[in-house]
Amino acid sequence: MEAIIQAIINGSMTGAYYGLAALGLTLIFGVIKVINFAHGSLLMVGMFTAYWIIQLTGWHPYAALVLVIPLLFAFGYALQGIVIKPVLEAQREVREPTEVIIVTTGVWYILDNLALMLFGAEFRTAKTSLTGQVFFIGDYFLPKPQFYGVIITIATSAFLLWFLKHTRIGRSIRAASLDRDAASLMGINQYRVYNIAFGIGAAIAGIVGCVLIPFYYVYPSVGVVFDVKCFIIVVLGGLGSIPGALVGGVIVGLIESIFPMFMTSTWTELIVYAVFMAVLFIRPAGLFGEKRDW
Asked: What's the CA gap between 203 and 67, in Å, rounded?
């Protein structure tokens, strides 16, 4: 029984940063109505940015957030404005322009291969003051990096919800997500809103990079691992739903942590996909998916 409780603790913490990784992806879909296949690559960029800041300055990984967040926001803002905007303009009458999927897939390959050219294929680790540290609560332990990751996930999600509901830009984002044409008639610059939303999604990927640095390897294709999980989580929770991303992340984290105790770990992915398919069969929009998520 103690082993199962420990697995639940570990799975919940793992699911928290899975959900945080999916948060940026679901925000981008909720606003722009396209699936960003380069989201994992943005996470990889965030990890490498955090890694080199730590290596060059000796900063604490969470102090690196001060630079990582604005840098990734600016990168995402520019990526949307320069690469994706022309496609959206060309498909102005299409609510969910599928050509953007092809564009973001190209960005994924470009970023991953550029990282491979610049940094090589080796796996890197950033030794920090948090690496290997744990909290003990009775007979159970909580790895400090994952525990702080849960706190950062909760704080980021709460701030994002507050931002979307109580700021002018946030309300503009919500309006554009519900009806881009009506939002434009109300004086909202939809493409500026798209740039901001994409920048926020990239910034969240940067936050995930800082969360992962103390205990996860950094390498050029690391984003592929999280890309697959993020898509499962976002669809499982409901496309465009922030609570759905968090709940979906915890579900996947619990499955990955608990089921290997009773069967070989190779079956874990099958269980994840089985749950994924079952949820979509019962509720095609996902657990929290609705026409209007905000």
From this structure: 10
Quick one: CA torsion of 77, 54, 216, 101, rounded to 10 degrees?
10
pLDDT digits (tens, 9 = 90+) for 260-294: 888 877 788 888 888 888 888 888 878 886 654 44
Q: What tokens appear for 225 in the block? A: 């691992």
| Beta-bridge partner residues of 218 | 124
Question: Coil, helix or strand for 124?
Answer: strand
For the entire predicted model, the pTM comes to: 0.90
Q: Residue 258, Cβ neighbours under 10 Å: how many?
A: 17
Half-sphere exposure of 57 (CA within 13 A, CB side): 14
**Residue among 193, 51, 43 nearest 107 (CA):** 43
Specify the 3-state DSSP secondary structure of 143: strand
- Ranges of beta strands (E only) in the chain are 134-137, 140-143
Which pLDDT tens digit goes with each residue over 86-109?
Answer: 888 776 666 666 778 889 999 999
**Tokens encoding 195:** 């740039």
User: Measured between alpha carbons, how far is residue 188 from residues 86, 100, 174, 240, 290 in Å?
Assistant: 18, 22, 11, 20, 24
The terminus-to-terminus CA distance of the chain in angstroms comes to: 40
CA distance 43 to 21: 8
CA distances from 187 to 51, 105, 133, 181, 219 (A): 41, 32, 51, 10, 43
Answer whether 190's CB lies under 8 Å from 28's CB: no
